[in-house]
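Margin note from the TA: students keep mixing up input and output lines. Inputs are the sequences; the output is the structure of the whole complex. Example:
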Amino acid sequence: MSNSRFSLVLLLSAALSLPAIAHIERSEPLQSLRQSYFAIVGMTFGPMGDMVKGDIEWNGEQFAAWASDLAAVSSVTVERGFAPGSDKGKTRAKPEIWDNKADFEEKLGNFRMQAAKLAEVAATGDRQAIAGQFRKTGGTCKACHDNYKSRGYLY
Ligand code: HEC
């Protein structure tokens, strides 16, 4: 093995053994899965909000691309990340989720429905309608977070 190849291997194995660098915590794969899902959701929805608020310049095509990503990502079955027994660990997911599964999944369904609508409205380029549908979609985040997401880590 060449020297540079060897140091690359060292570098990679160091990265994999440091939980602060590796995003997936192997001892808590389900918590990692759902947090990764919501991280993509948040990092897609966030810049869309900046655009709606005028903090960054309006670009209808870019907005529509983000909206399409949001709808696609929302449809990933994150439910498996909330399987029984995954209620502890490094998480902001409140225990109420596991006591109210039907309500939680209904709220997830509302989010997916509004995100799909947002992608449709975004494709029309009608800024006022887009802003309205953006707020509606944001309402579905809040509806779930108010009941089921803690601000800080729970355990
Ligand atoms: C059906 C419930 C539900 C909906 C809908 C929902 N969230 Fe969440 N979200 C959660 C829960 C529960 C967590 C905590 C997960 C954990 O820590 O294990 C979370 C975590 C997050 C996080 C932190 C992710 C991380 O890095 O750990 C962000 C950001 C986020 N949500 C943004 C959003 C946005 C933006 C929307 C709407 C566009 C949204 N969420 C819709 C339940 C929901």
